[in-house]
What we know:
This protein is 35% helix and 20% strand. The chain is built from 16 helices and 18 strands. It has helices spanning 25-36, 83-93, 114-134, 184-189, 191-194, 201-205, 220-231, 260-263, 270-286, 292-298, 302-308, 311-329, 334-345, 403-410, 450-453, 459-474, and strands at residues 2-3, 9-10, 14-21, 42-46, 138-142, 146-152, 155-160, 165-173, 178-179, 213-216, 238-242, 349-361, 367-373, 380-384, 386-389, 393-394, 430-432, 438-444. It is globular.
Amino acid sequence: MSQTHDGQATGAIRDADVLIVGGGLSGALLAAHLLRLPGRRQVLVIEPRSELGRGEAYSAVELGHTLNGNAARMSVDPDNADDLTQWLTDYIAAGGWPESKQQPVPISELFPPRGIFGLYVQQRLAEAQAIGAQQGSTVEHVRAEVVDLQVAADSALLSLDDGQQLRGACAVLATGMFPAARTPQTQSSGLNAAAVDPWDVSAMAQLDPQATVLIIGSGLTMVDAVVSLEQAGHRGPIEVFSRHGLLPHVRRQPPAWVDFLAEDPSLRTPRQLLRALRGQCRAALVAGVDWQAPLDTVRAHIGRLWSQATDVQRRQFVRHVRPWWESHHHRSPPLSAELVARLHGEGRLRIHAASFKGLQPSAGGRLAICIRRRGEAHTGWVVGDALINSSGIEYDWRRVARPLPQQLLARGLIQPGPLALGICADPGGAVVDAQGQVASRLFAMGPPLRGMWWESTAVTDVALQAKALAVRLAALPL
Ligand SMILES: Cc1cc2nc3c(=O)[nH]c(=O)nc-3n(C[C@H](O)[C@H](O)[C@H](O)COP(=O)(O)OP(=O)(O)OC[C@H]3O[C@@H](n4cnc5c(N)ncnc54)[C@H](O)[C@@H]3O)c2cc1C
């Protein structure tokens, strides 16, 4: 018999060095770095999905569900920006992704399907495993959900949904994003139960091709949903509702632009930034340069600016700038954007600036959603045949109805991050508990750190964090 950290007798506990909770992109990249570093360590990645390295994003099976950046922007190796391009070159040469040959652009400018990107991540993990094996380091996939976690001065203990317990010298929360559709708020409105999965083409193929489809949310998930509908043979009207009615812009390949924020570190408040950015975009347009060029220089500064900002400034940003930041910065891959633009031009897809308020069944098996149009005080109903929820992510862990976030909060092992976005951590990812103590054995990376960095989700964010966190963990006394 062993004992848990709160002294309760339990069955055998399995020991390891590093426990990674979640085996999506973050978990896989962290594991790969740990394998490559000198030293011998046993890493367990606990992930209910059948494969590591994919998570929700890279489990995509449709070729039309692509990355939103071209290959040259999506390397998982912070030291080699061409890593994905090189891998993709070999993959295509070996007969993979034959459809890519229909696009007359260099491989570095292709937007790979996310499922193929998942293969790339898996291959990089497999290569790291071979290197780690030479020094006795291992990574093992434990297929389960972590439902509870306790920490002691020199270890962390995980409880899994199959009853197993794992003890490690440290644990890392790489649990990714929690879809808003799984939070109690959307569950109680019935949205989750009534909605078709934005990526489920076979479910969409069951719809009448002329069905009126209502989509809540107008970001990149909506773009994927439109691709799915097209692929499923849908040819009817699509009505899109989102608070501001803004569509993601299309990603182009802008030239380099002066890093104006590096040159003027006095620019800090959202108002100053916006004014300076608008000025730079105007200057770019006057010079005949794409406005995306100056915008793309901001990305490298976002983490610093966000972490230096006061809560009041962060709130101003979220309230006034966020919708525009999302639509201008999180841009759409060109082929998907072309489809959305075509359907919009044909009048088949309409965008409404309106917020979703509720839903109810309607006559003839249809459904009605209650909306409030922007600028109007009253609500109204819109009837459709099917509904897709692409309203995004729940970053507030207090509202995530999964056992682990709830247990971590109940045990006081975490506290909400700034603006209740994700959880609080020090700059290197060590989790801060409810009393403000920095944990010595519990870490987090990727989307859970949204509140600390604002942008903590994209491939490049996760790749950088994985590398730095691996170095920190490797230095811990095991
Ligand atoms: C649909 C979609 C498309 C995206 N497209 C792009 C893109 O084009 N470009 C870009 O830069 N970024 C994109 N992103 C963002 C980003 O790359 C992903 O969010 C990235 O997958 C983050 O990796 P992650 O491992 O932290 O999270 P996830 O990939 O979400 O993986 C987290 C994993 O943790 C597991 N997990 C959660 N809780 C537990 C638990 N208690 N116990 C065990 N396991 C648990 C989950 O099963 C999941 O597999 C996209 C995201 C999504 C959702």
